[in-house]
Amino acid sequence: MSVRCVATEIGGNKYYPLYNNKAMFRLQAMPEDTLNAINENTEASFKLAFDVFLMLCEEGEAARKHYGYEAGTLPKWEDAEYDFGAGDISEMKSAIYAAITIGCGREIPEDADVDLTLLEAQKKTGSK
User: Per residue in 6-36, is it b (16+ CB within 10 Å) or e — as a string?
Assistant: First the structure.
């Protein structure tokens, strides 16, 4: 699989949140400052964090289906509302940020030729 999901277990279920291009656009369509708002310790921020987590898990499941993996489960609000403990909420929020961090990453194969002189010149001039 060329995409990298974050495998996380919450409330006894395994989920695969994925931050890809579609997730990026879906997140941008959410209220401004969503990622900062989920860090608050309120019921509203918990619901918002769940919505973000669900969206990332939907993208993960779509990618898994595309690549022929067995279907996983999607989180349900009823389960989160009644079964998630404080540790599960922290794990969910950590998985959100991990998926975004990994999704924004860029892999350079170890055997790729890297022109160190060009990289240094680009740093100095600020060009790409």
Answer: bebebbeeebbbbbbeebeebbeeeeeebbe
Of the candidates 60, 47, 28, the one whose C-alpha atom is nearest the C-alpha of residue 93 is 47
- Bridge partners, 69 (sequence order): none
CA angle 18–20–24, rounded 5-degree value: 110
Q: Which residues pair with 13 in a beta bridge?
A: 10
CA proximity to 89, closest of 52, 34, 58: 52
The overall longest dimension of the chain from CA atoms, in Å, is 57
Tell me the sheet residues that pair with 9: 14
Q: Which two tokens stand for residue 2?
A: 């060329």
Do residues 61 and 23 make contact, with C-beta atoms less than 8 angstroms apart? Answer: no
Best CA proximity match to 53, nearest among 21, 87, 23 = 23
Q: How far is CA 1 from CA 51, 67, 121, in A?
A: 25, 6, 34
Look up residue 69 and give its amino acid. Y
pLDDT in tens, 38-81: 999 899 999 999 999 999 999 999 999 999 999 899 999 998 88
